[in-house]
Design brief:
single chain; mainly alpha; Fumarase C, Chain B, domain 1; Fumarase C, Chain A, domain 2; 3 domains; two-stranded antiparallel ribbon; two-stranded parallel sheet
Length: 443
């Protein structure tokens, strides 16, 4: 069944090509389409476009469909174009003429837009939860290894002293920035396009503010053309949030792969987290982190992939947008898996202690030696040259009684302040409230 079907049947090859993989991805939208239908039907009833009896039968039918989704029995039947057609078909079978009226005062354009926004909201909320869980693992490791020396590097050369606590804490704080971006994308997406129809509104006396409240949106996409322009823009913003997070996780995974190698030997990974070799019995390969590195490299390209689809398109709907699902849906699924693994893996890392006794890292203290001379009254330039001469002559020795005092330094990492920072950011946006509002539609 196709809602737009004319008297002349569509060529089978054209149909197969245009439908594509939509029925697969549409199953992800089925529950959200039920919620959108429930809100739309209630609005139609309150504006007099449906009778209360028609609305009651539609609500009963939609709740029945929602139940089938929970039980896993809902399917898109062969020959049915998409999830929206399937739900309308089921409603018409159950309620008769009332089912035929459900599409009054809307288009598939704004219907799909609204479904997608509900889907993106929930995916972003789940990603936010995982970021917070990974933060807790990382900040826990930071506190555990706060005083364990780790050499810091620039240009992949030993640079200055650091600690494993500071290293874990750096990624924890990075996650706060990623969470903020996820939340801001959530806020932009959380605007209601329903009622914009095909992009130019309708002549029916609909109440768009009502559906905004019923669907848990913060506000309304007011201009109907603007609402349609959000198709593609929402996917782009989600892609940017995922790409930022992927960048953090990519660098983190690379560090772990590098520092796990024998030439560094900073970490010990559990045997259960590594793989072996078919011919080298000693190998403990960090395959999971290598795959995370590879998968996040793919995720950082999502914004570019979306842009390649939506660039150079005029305002209004275009079938090009259908392919956006193939990009953004799997991206969220991949990120969820990566975050689950990182939450599990980061807490299992054990670090090597005593690295500050290794002669290879002696020169990490050269800057501190310079600074110590400066505090004794020597000018910075003279102190720099004095220490440089000691290094070149092989006479440099680690200065005694080193202790940094500034906020965020190796000896004053301020993990409590980082935790407070995360708490403040996490409380700025309640990304689960809209789901609670949606559930009320089933009451």
């Amino acid at each position: 069944m196709k809602l737009w079907q004319k008297d002349t049947p569509l060529d089978a090859r054209i149909e197969d090509f245009t439908v594509g993989d939509d029925p697969i991805y549409d199953l992800e939208l089925a529950e959200y389409d039920v919620f959108v239908n429930l809100a739309h039907a209630q609005m139609l009833a309150q504006t007099g476009l449906l009778t209360h009896q028609e609305y009651a039968s539609l609500k009963e039918g939609l709740i029945s469909i929602h139940r089938s989704l929970l039980y896993g029995t809902f399917k898109i039947e062969p020959g049915i174009e998409d999830v929206h057609s399937q739900i309308e078909k089921l409603l018409t079978e159950q309620t008769g003429d009332a089912g035929k009226k459900i599409h009054t005062a809307r288009s598939r354009n704004d219907q799909v837009l609204t479904d997608l926004k509900l889907y993106f909201r929930e995916q972003l909320a789940n990603t936010g939860d995982q970021i917070k869980a990974l933060f807790e693992q990382s900040i826990g490791q930071a506190e555990r290894y706060q005083d364990v020396f780790m050499p810091g590097y620039t240009h992949l050369q030993v640079a200055m002293p650091s600690s494993f606590g500071q290293w874990f804490g750096s990624y924890a704080e990075n996650l706060i920035d990623d969470l903020q971006l996820v939340q801001q994308v959530f806020r932009i997406i959380n605007q209601n396009p329903l009622g914009s129809a095909a992009g130019y509104g309708s002549s029916f006396p609909i109440d768009r503010e009502l559906t905004t409240r019923l669907l848990g949106f913060d506000r309304l996409d007011i201009n109907s053309i603007h609402a349609q322009i959000q198709r593609g823009k929402s996917e782009l913003l989600c892609g940017m949030a995922l790409a930022s997070l992927a960048h953090t996780l990519n660098k983190w995974a690379y560090d772990i792969c590098l520092y796990n190698g024998q030439n560094f030997g900073f970490f010990t990974l559990p045997v259960s987290m590594t793989t072996g070799s078919s011919i080298m019995p000693h190998k403990k390969n960090p395959d999971v982190f290598e795959l995370i590195r590879a998968k996040t490299n793919k995720l950082v390209t999502i914004p570019q992939q979306v842009l390649q689809l939506i660039q150079n398109l005029p305002a209004g709907y275009h079938r090009d947008f259908q392919l956006l699902k193939e990009i953004i849906f799997p991206a969220f699924q991949t990120m969820n898996k990566i975050l689950d693994l990182m939450i599990f893996a980061v807490g299992s890392i054990e670090v090597k202690e005593g690295l500050d006794e290794d002669e290879r890292y002696l020169l990490a203290y050269s800057v501190d030696a310079v600074n110590q001379l400066v505090t004794q009254g020597v000018s910075f330039r003279d102190a720099y040259h004095q220490v440089g001469q000691q290094v070149r002559s092989g006479q440099f020795r680690k200065p005694a009684n080193l202790k940094t005092t500034h906020l965020g330094s190796i000896h004053r990492p301020a993990f409590g302040k980082i935790q407070e920072k995360m708490k403040q950011v996490a409380e700025e946006v309640d990304m689960h409230k809209p789901r609670e509002i949606l559930q009320q539609l089933l009451d």
